């Protein structure tokens, strides 16, 4: 076992982690621990843009952006946080430009902006051009630019270090975060990182679903680690299904396509979004578009031999727009479906995309241990966190914004905390939990295979907990997930070696996935209403009387099969009263 | 050299992981021949073959997952996004560098009902850690050495720097790089001279040298004028053929050479 000591340890090297590292690294001795090489992170898969009211191409202001974010989130957004995000968005984009990000430009040479779902002028009048973009690889350019600037600032990375636990030291005022435990993939060795402040930026858990835009590596490790420590996870039942995944595959096709004018059509060629969102049509927020698509298919108007998808029609945009503004998605359709978007519409269906919920934080990115108190020294930002700026449904582009605004805040806050505090002693035998966990996984205790359990988990989640849910389907999902947890106790890891044991890694990841799937389902069962990304067929309306509140899920007891306790947290309102959501 | 070809059924200790999932309709059995090496236990690298059902729409990555998940859990490779964006799964497939998630089986099937064999090796020129997983450090070291970040002097503007659409278009191609190492590890010069920066590092230098906002061109050109710099390039175009993002890599290297000759950008 090796021991390290840093002021700030950042876990995760996607957009949020590296944005935090750039701030923390210039203020304090900082280490970044990352499961993947930084440039492999899934921020790089984001395509369409990052919204900020620059008003470079038409009138806009951050108050409109705030309102859109809150309404888009079906009023479950904490309004103080949304205000901060929309206000700081402008500097966040300008900071990236100054770091070198190659945004597309207007004829005057300013950062160009395009339309995106749910982003409107003057509180819903019409779609507004707010998304700053670099072709359809904005996330790629953000990830590259942030990594380039980490190189510039000499940030210290520990690549392929997989964090499996955090260290919490009990004090009179409650638990304090004092470090993290990492498994070095290259050697199988454990590393204890003592730190004054730890920032979690570990991304989402899309791999609980089969059809997903998420990478294989998005297994919710960070959320799982925090949850196992008895800390809460917030609003986990709110999971976003992106309307335009390549049918059958789930690979993302950016909403920016519709921002540039692409249209969704059903089997008869009808532009069906006109019926569901008469004002902004195809540019309604994702929850509304995904539900509408699912309804079209359920009611028999789907396209294709099995009538199980709809069509994204880009043919009228012309080859030039597709090749210059949407080149990557054009290539994806050609490569993976052998469909040329220039000539024919592309088969699409909603794909599991983004966790609105996560590790609860305040606007300073400090992690909450209950509704009021923080865990000193522990921070979270990005998809793994829940501030909550996305509420029940995130607007397109606001994730890239979130990682930049709150990644930056987390980095600054962690470094300032480190400057003002001494090291606190680590708890006794800090790595014991991880040692025991890995030893157990490597021991022989059954014939169950990780791949089988994962496949069954993903199948039940797709069938029973995706765009539309009912009491019945959710109970089925819960039953299935709990049975799979029992079977997980009997898995065997075949690779017993120390060196790059990705077989063991997949087994660990599956444990997190099972736990997070159950939290999602338990939260969804309890939320007897439809709001944003959580649509209950048996409770089709939003119920502000009973459910205008955040879900807080706690682990009750030890082990994978421990119970989940639900609590609730009030939503923060500043100036916007909930209204019926029409587009 | 112990080159052995075994089918999974021949294995006794670490072989099959139990029953395999049902074969999907329309799948064809193909042979996946993989270069294996685990320095912990193997004295030498060797070839191992697996029979795997493949659909025309399967990516090579699906086949590797099939082997790992159902036949041999010790098979080791990197992968993440599975659609050609993250750059994790560069490997040599049937002799050429490709991302395993971007090669579709329909393009590899042998004609005339013949048995299809897909040969998979680690990318060449970087030390093999285990099976298809190589040490990426030398590659990233070369990347970091060319100062791959915007260099600008003077006071920062309050708003964004202006850049014309034409100036932005000038370096568009090289911004697509995902650092997968397909180009660098297809380069014959890099195979023999590991100290050569390699195509990917030069691509990333190009991305800034030709960015109108950047003021670090001279510093980077000095670095690339070095003995391990652009002059090592013999214009074999392997890099351009290998790039999964369609970047005109050789052209970018030529443009850097020309910039050095004329010392103007």
Automatic annotation (TrEMBL), chain A:
GO BP term (any one): anaerobic respiration
MF term (GO), any: succinate dehydrogenase (quinone) activity
Keyword entries, A-Z: Electron transport, FAD, Flavoprotein, Membrane, Oxidoreductase, Transport, Tricarboxylic acid cycle
Subcellular location per the Swiss-Prot or TrEMBL entry: Membrane
Occurrences of domain Fumarate reductase/succinate dehydrogenase flavoprotein-like C-terminal (ranges): 454-583
Keyword Electron transport found: yes
Membrane topology: Peripheral membrane protein
Sequence positions that bind FAD: 12-17, 34-49, 221, 383, 399-400
InterPro entries: FAD-dep_OxRdtase_2_FAD-bd, FAD/NAD-bd_sf, FRD_SDH_FAD_BS, Fum_R/Succ_DH_flav-like_C_sf, Fum_Rdtase/Succ_DH_flav-like_C, SdhA/FrdA/AprA, Succ_DH/fumarate_Rdtase_cat_sf, Succ_DH_flav_su_fwd
Reaction(s) this enzyme catalyzes, per UniProt: a quinone + succinate = fumarate + a quinol
Pfam families cross-referenced by the UniProt entry: FAD_binding_2, Succ_DH_flav_C
EC id: 1.3.5.1
Superkingdom per UniProt: Bacteria
Domain FAD-dependent oxidoreductase 2 FAD-binding: 7-400
Cofactors that this protein relies on: FAD
Modified residues (Tele-8alpha-FAD histidine): 42
GO cellular component annotations of the record: plasma membrane
Active site, per annotation: 286
Keyword Membrane: yes
Residues involved in substrate binding: 242, 254, 353, 394
Cofactor binding description: Flavinylated by SdhE, about 5% flavinylation occurs in the absence of SdhE.
Family listed: Belongs to the FAD-dependent oxidoreductase 2 family. FRD/SDH subfamily.
Protein name according to UniProt: Succinate dehydrogenase flavoprotein subunit
TrEMBL record, chain B:
Biased composition (Low complexity): 1-16
EC number(s) stated in the UniProt entry for this protein: 1.3.5.1
Gene3D superfamilies noted in UniProt: 3.10.20.30, Alpha-helical ferredoxin
Residue ranges, annotated region (Disordered): 1-25
GO molecular function, one term: metal ion binding
Keyword Iron-sulfur: yes
PROSITE patterns in alphabetical order: 4FE4S_FER_1, 4FE4S_FER_2
InterPro entries xrefs: 2Fe-2S_ferredoxin-like_sf, 4Fe4S_Fe-S-bd, 4Fe4S_Fe_S_CS, Beta-grasp_dom_sf, Helical_ferredxn, SDH/FRD_Iron-Sulfur, Succ_DH/fum_Rdtase_Fe-S, Succ_DH/fum_Rdtase_N
Needed co-factor(s): [3Fe-4S] cluster; [2Fe-2S] cluster; [4Fe-4S] cluster
GO biological-process terms attached to the record: respiratory electron transport chain; tricarboxylic acid cycle
Segments forming domain 4Fe-4S ferredoxin-type: 167-197
Pfam families associated with the record: Fer2_3 (PF13085), Fer4_8 (PF13183)
Keywords, ordered alphabetically: 2Fe-2S, 3Fe-4S, 4Fe-4S, Iron, Iron-sulfur, Metal-binding, Oxidoreductase, Tricarboxylic acid cycle
Coiled coil: none
GO terms for cellular component: plasma membrane
Signal peptide from the UniProt entry: none
Domain of life, source organism: Bacteria
Record-stated family: Belongs to the succinate dehydrogenase/fumarate reductase iron-sulfur protein family.
Protein name: succinate dehydrogenase
């Amino acid at each position: 076992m090796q021991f390290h000591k840093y002021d700030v340890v950042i876990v995760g090297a996607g957009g949020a982690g590296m944005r935090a590292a750039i701030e923390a690294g210039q203020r304090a001795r900082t280490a970044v621990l990352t499961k993947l090489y930084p440039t492999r992170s899934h921020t790089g898969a984001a395509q369409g843009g990052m919204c900020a009211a620059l008003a470079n191409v038409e009138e806009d202001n951050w108050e409109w952006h705030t309102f859109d974010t809150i309404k888009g989130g079906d009023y479950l957004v904490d309004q103080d946080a949304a205000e901060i995000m929309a206000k700081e968005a402008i500097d966040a984009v300008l900071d990236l430009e100054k770091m070198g990000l190659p945004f597309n430009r207007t004829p005057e040479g300013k950062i160009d902006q395009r339309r995106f779902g749910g982003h409107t002028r003057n509180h819903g009048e019409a779609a507004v051009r707010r998304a700053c973009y670099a072709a359809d690889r904005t996330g790629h350019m953000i990830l590259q630019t942030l990594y380039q600037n980490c190189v510039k600032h000499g940030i210290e990375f520990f690549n392929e270090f997989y964090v499996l636990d955090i260290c919490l030291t009990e004090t009179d005022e409650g638990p304090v975060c004092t470090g993290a435990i990492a498994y070095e993939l290259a050697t199988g060795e454990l590393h204890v990182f003592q730190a004054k402040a730890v920032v979690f930026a570990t991304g989402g858990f899309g791999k609980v679903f089969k059809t997903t835009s998420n990478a294989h590596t998005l297994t919710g490790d960070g959320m799982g680690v925090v949850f196992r420590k008895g800390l809460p996870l917030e609003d986990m039942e709110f999971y976003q299904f992106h309307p335009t995944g390549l049918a059958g595959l789930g690979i993302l096709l950016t909403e920016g396509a519709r921002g540039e004018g692409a249209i969704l059509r059903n089997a008869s060629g009808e532009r069906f979004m006109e019926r569901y969102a008469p004002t902004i049509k195809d540019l309604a927020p994702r929850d509304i578009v995904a539900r509408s698509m699912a309804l079209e298919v359920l009611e028999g108007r789907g396209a294709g031999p099995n009538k199980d998808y709809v069509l994204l029609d880009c043919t009228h945009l012309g080859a030039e727009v597709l090749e210059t503004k949407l080149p990557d998605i054009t290539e994806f359709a050609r490569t993976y479906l052998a469909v040329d978007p220039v000539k024919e519409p592309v088969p699409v269906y909603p794909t599991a995309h983004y966790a609105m919920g996560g590790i609860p934080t305040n606007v300073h990115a400090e992690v909450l241990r209950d509704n009021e108190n923080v865990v000193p020294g522990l921070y979270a930002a990005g998809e793994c966190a829940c501030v909550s700026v996305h509420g029940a449904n995130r607007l397109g582009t606001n994730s890239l914004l979130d990682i930049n605004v709150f990644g930056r805040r987390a980095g600054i806050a962690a470094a300032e905390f480190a400057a003002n505090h001494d090291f606190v002693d680590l708890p006794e035998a800090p790595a014991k939990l991880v040692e025991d966990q890995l030893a157990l996984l490597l021991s022989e205790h059954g014939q169950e295979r990780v791949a089988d359990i994962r496949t069954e988990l993903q199948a039940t989640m797709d069938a029973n907990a995706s765009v539309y849910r009912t009491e019945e389907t959710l109970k089925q999902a819960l039953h299935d997930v709990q049975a799979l947890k029992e079977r997980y106790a009997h898995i065997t890891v075949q690779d017993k070696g120390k060196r790059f044991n990705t077989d063991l890694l997949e087994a660990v990841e599956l444990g997190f996935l099972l736990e997070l799937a159950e939290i999602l389902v338990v939260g969804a069962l309890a939320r007897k209403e439809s709001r944003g990304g959580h649509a209950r067929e048996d409770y089709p309306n939003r119920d502000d009387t009973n459910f205008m509140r955040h879900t807080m899920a706690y682990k009750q007891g030890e082990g994978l099969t421990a119970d989940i306790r639900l609590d609730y947290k009030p939503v923060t309102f500043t100036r916007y009263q909930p209204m019926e959501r029409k587009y | 050299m112990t080159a052995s070809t075994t089918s999974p059924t021949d294995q006794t200790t670490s072989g099959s992981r139990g029953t395999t999932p049902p074969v999907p309709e329309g799948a064809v059995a193909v042979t996946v021949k993989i270069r294996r090496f685990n320095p912990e236990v193997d004295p030498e690298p060797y070839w191992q073959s697996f029979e795997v059902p493949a659909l025309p729409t399967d990516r090579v990555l699906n086949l590797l997952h099939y082997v790992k998940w159902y036949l041999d859990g010790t098979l080791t490779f990197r992968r993440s996004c599975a659609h050609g964006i993250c750059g994790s799964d560069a490997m040599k497939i049937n002799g050429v560098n490709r991302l395993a998630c971007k090669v579709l089986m329909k393009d590899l099937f042998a004609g005339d009902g013949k048995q299809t064999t897909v040969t998979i090796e680690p990318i060449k020129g970087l030390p093999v850690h285990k099976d298809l997983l190589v040490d990426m450090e030398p590659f990233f070291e070369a990347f970091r050495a060319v100062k791959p970040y915007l260099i600008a002097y003077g006071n920062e503007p309050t708003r964004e720097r202006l850049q014309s659409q034409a100036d932005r278009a000038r370096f568009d191609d090289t911004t697509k790089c995902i650092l997968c190492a397909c180009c660098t590890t297809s380069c014959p010069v890099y195979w023999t001279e590991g100290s050569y920066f390699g195509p990917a590092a030069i691509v990333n230098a190009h991305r800034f040298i030709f960015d109108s906002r950047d003021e670090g061109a001279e510093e980077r050109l000095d670095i690339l004028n070095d003995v391990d710099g652009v002059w090592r390039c013999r214009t074999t175009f392997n890099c351009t053929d290998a790039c999964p993002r369609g970047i005109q890599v050789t052209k970018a290297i030529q443009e850097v050479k020309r910039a050095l000759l004329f010392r103007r950008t």
